[in-house]
Amino acid sequence: MSAVEAQLRLNEAREFMLANDAVRALPIYEKLSRQCPRAAVVWYEYGNAAAKLRKLDTADRAWQTALGLDPRNAELAGMAGHQYQAVRRPDRARVCFTQAAAADPRGINPRISLAVLQEKAHRLAEARQAVDECLAIDPRDDQARYFSAVLDRREGKLTEAETRLRDLIASEPQHPFVRYAARYELAQLLDRSDRFDEAMRMLIEAKQLVRALTETDLLIQGYDQSTASALQFTRSQPKDIMRVWAGYFPERKRSAIPPLAFLGGHPRSGTTLLEQILDAHPEVAALDEPAAFLEVLQPEFYKSGQLSSPRVNVLRGLYLAALAEEAGPAAKGKTLVDKNPSPTSRLPLWLRIFPELRVIIALRDPRDVVLSCYFQNIPLNATNVNFLSFERVAKHYTDLMSVWLAVREWEGFKWLETRYEDTVANVDKEGRRVTEFLGLAWHEQQARFYEKSRSRQLYSPTYQDVTQPVYSRSVARWRAYEQYLAPVLPVLEPFCRRFGYE
Predict the structure, then answer these.
(1) What are the counts of helices (DSSP H) followed by strands (DSSP E) for the chain?
(2) Which of 399, 264, 275, 276 has the alpha carbon at shortest distance from 342?
(3) Helix (H) or strand (E) holding 417
(4) Which of 199, 400, 401, 476 is the most exposed place for a label (fewest CB within 10 A)?
(5) For residues 448, 452, 453 and 458, what is the CA-based torsion angle, rounded to 10 degrees?
(6) What is the pTM of this model?
(7) Contact at 8 Å (CB) between 423 and 274?
(8) b/e for 230-255, b at 16 or more Cβ within 10 A?
(9) Residue 431 CB coordination number (10 Å)
């Protein structure tokens, strides 16, 4: 193949990837990797296409080949590191960022990426070292100054963190993320020191900056359309819909699966805390927002309207294979818990494919939930875009929990509600109740869940909070911000009553 022909084929594969069609791109990359075996960029993009299709062993081999072909290419190593992060292989990502930093002695980005990765893994000394290297290269770098303040806060140096953040904001940083993230971070510190009005001002400024960077109206429009459809479908089903579905998919035709539970509820309702308590049990493998449902099961479900028993068994197998891949071999034989708050709105799909699923719904005072979501600085998508205003957070809460209120009227499946406030009041008592719902006995290690959490890479925004014993300062936190929540309190009031919150 000539160089011109190879470039044409590479462009064709790239067009397929831009169209989100990795299925057609992958064989082109596979052929190019044989015809151009020394082209690192081909191997790198080959890995990206394989990763899109959850062929992670193939992706790993392709990325490692690319890195071996061009080991001094800092940009390539950095990009590979971010790809490994996306598929939740933090150890591989760490090696890539280290390689990128070594290849570029004055490179800020690979060192910041390494610091972020280390901080999320609670390796604060290593994160500090990477940030200090950035500051030695450029003491005025926006990212390094911001992340130094984050580490101050993680290390308990709250006064130093606040000073850094105020200085950073006053200097009008040019980095778009830093401009709003510094305000979010400062708001957290102000809240912890009971300066509530100032914390709210910082949040309002941060959200204004985020809106200026993103087409939020388009995201909201997409969310509203899909959510309305899901809620309409759920409410239209009769209470005996599980019996109807069982007629199409009787127990005798179901492929065997390991014990499986879904842990949902609205984001910021204590799902991560509960997941960590369950995962500390030696017979449980609880997964922190795995991609198996949203990236594998849901897309495959909608590819075909055919839901014969063989088809449903195929879907079950695809989901469980993806879950097992993420959980790793240590999870074999254990009860699997998929903790995923946002897909609570898709519970009918879960139950259509897994009628034996045990469903755990985490509850928390709706006013605390809405406030906590408003405080979150997380990448925008069609869900999180709702967290830019109290009105939209309240709507999102209403949408998601209305699905649950409809589904919990269905007959023929096992479900349990658990309150965050009850867990905070008595970890052993409420943890035991949820553990026994899974058919297991309470284990003493579960009371010390935070010890295991410190050694895990978590993906929830609350990854820091579950590395310490349970605390109660977040209970009834909404009262300090009641004046700001006032417009949405009437919207939340029916849910407060339904879930037993005065």
Answers:
(1) 25, 5
(2) 264
(3) strand 414-419
(4) 476
(5) -150
(6) 0.91
(7) yes
(8) bbeebeebeeebbeebeeebeeeebe
(9) 25
